[in-house]
Design a protein that fits this description.
This protein is 53% helix and 12% strand. With 448 residues, the chain is an alpha+beta fold. The chain is elongated, with a radius of gyration of 42 Å. A hairpin with a 4-residue loop joins β5 and β6. It is built from ten helices and eight strands.
């Protein structure tokens, strides 16, 4: 890396999830890229890594958040060739990690658009902050970096001016300019950090929305296939039912033919002998009744089974159609949420969303939390103040009218003026909104 100062050291950090798993100097990472050293713990995965430059005082000065693929043996993808040097030359400023704002390249802050898919965004939540993890790792100096002592300016020949020779007004002006510039620089760094955090959260939210839409489309297609399959089964059952009805009609016609045959036989035997006629008639009726009952019961049983199957198929089809309608509504709702893009554009234009709430003051509402704020502003303000929503509302009532809210035996409010509690966290119901007399009554009841 020819663009870095000679006193800077190159290093690479490998992450496992949001945890820093491994740190190495850049020559060791080059050996992994050249296929000499495998990394078994990342076999068959895509690893998140960070290229970093470290100065002589163990301060991070430049970071590139990139991803790299490993095969089943843990060997790095030989096609990986991210131009880290060119990216850092065009990099924007990031947070201050001890030696001024760093040069930062990540998914949300990529100077070359077609390389964005090879980058990732750092985690900036408390307890899992990627910048803090790397800064602590560099301070531990497990890489064995040589620490250079900071240069000290030679002030031995300089003489401080005597206090009585300095102008008081000039000293005040210089101090004011110095601290004003320091506050402006600090505010600028904080704004850059917040913009980076908002950009990473927006990217993460966009990826989640895309994943949800993809999953929704897959589920919708699966339900459509299921409905088509049920419709085919329904058609098959209808064809079988028609076949059974045809067989039933054929059996009925056959029975009618048998009845006519035995009737003719009975009429012929009637002329020969009455006893033989009676026997034939009984046999005929018994056989006919048995066959009719057997055929009828069998066909009725089959019809009942087919009708039950058709009933359950209709019920399943209705349930699936209702589920498809619900999924379409959810899809329309997701598509309707595209209004969040306007908020993102306003945020990228530097327009902040500021709201004022008693006890909290002016608070900036992030774009990612705008929906939660609009749903319940008091709950959002209570969460910012670090108290519960019910406690915050009781404090608001006390803040607007600081007086004793206790009632006497006749049910009339006391109304004794009370000192106003400035912060919601310092407000204690039953104590802060009661005068000293009613506080004693409450304490006596609790003691009993």
């Amino acid at each position: 890396m020819s663009s870095r100062p000679p006193e800077h050291t190159e290093a690479v950090f490998l992450f496992s999830g949001d945890t820093l798993a491994r740190e190495m100097r850049y020559p060791e990472f080059e050996a992994i890229l050249d296929g000499f050293v495998p990394v078994p713990e990342y076999a068959g995965t895509t690893a998140k890594a960070v290229y970093a430059t470290i100065d002589g005082q163990l301060n991070l000065s430049a970071l590139v958040f990139f991803v790299i693929d490993f095969d089943e043996r843990g060997m790095a993808d030989p096609r990986w060739n991210l131009p880290v040097e060119q990216l850092l030359q065009q990099a924007s400023r990031g947070p201050d990690l001890g030696a001024g704002p760093i040069r930062l390249v990540c998914f949300s802050q990529c100077p070359v658009g077609w390389l964005q898919n090879q980058l990732w965004d750092p985690q900036m939540e408390p307890g899992r902050n990627s910048f803090v993890l790397m800064r602590k790792a560099v301070r531990r100096n497990r890489l064995g970096l040589v620490v250079q002592e900071p240069e000290e300016s030679d002030v031995s020949g300089a003489r401080e001016p005597e206090p009585d020779r300095l102008s008081t007004q000039r000293l005040k002006r210089e101090l004011h300019e110095h601290y004003s510039q320091e506050m402006r620089d600090r505010m600028a760094r904080m704004l850059k950090e917040q913009r980076l955090r908002i950009a990473t959260l927006s990217s993460e939210q966009a990826r989640k929305v895309d994943a949800l839409q993809h999953e929704h489309q897959q589920r919708l297609q699966a339900y459509r296939d299921k409905v088509r399959q049920l419709q085919e089964q329904k058609s098959e059952l209808s064809r079988k039912l028609d076949t059974l009805k045809e067989n039933f009609d054929a059996q009925v016609q056959k029975i009618e033919g048998m009845r006519e045959y035995f009737g003719h036989k009975l009429r012929a035997a009637h002329q020969d002998e009455n006893l033989q006629l009676q026997a034939l008639q009984e046999n005929y009726e018994m056989e006919l009744e048995a066959r009719v009952q057997s055929a009828t019961s069998e066909l009725e049983e089959r019809l009942e089974m087919r009708e039950m199957e058709l009933f359950y198929r209709h019920q399943q089809e209705s349930n699936l159609k209702e589920e498809i309608a619900r999924l379409r509504q959810e899809n329309q709702k997701l598509m309707g949420q595209g209004g969040g893009q306007l908020l993102d554009r306003l945020d990228q234009a530097g327009i902040s969303f500021v709201a004022f709430h008693p006890g909290v003051g002016q608070l900036t509402v992030p774009v990612s939390q705008m929906s939660a704020y609009l749903d319940d502003p008091d709950a959002f303000a209570a969460n910012t103040a670090g108290v519960g929503t019910e406690l915050y509302k009781r404090w608001l009532k006390h803040s607007r009218r600081p007086e004793c809210g206790a009632q006497d035996e006749e049910g009339k409010p006391c109304g004794h003026p009370l000192p106003q509690v400035a912060r919601p966290a310092d407000f204690h119901p039953g104590e802060s909104d009661r005068c000293s007399q009613h506080q004693m009554v409450v304490n006596q009841r609790l003691a009993q």
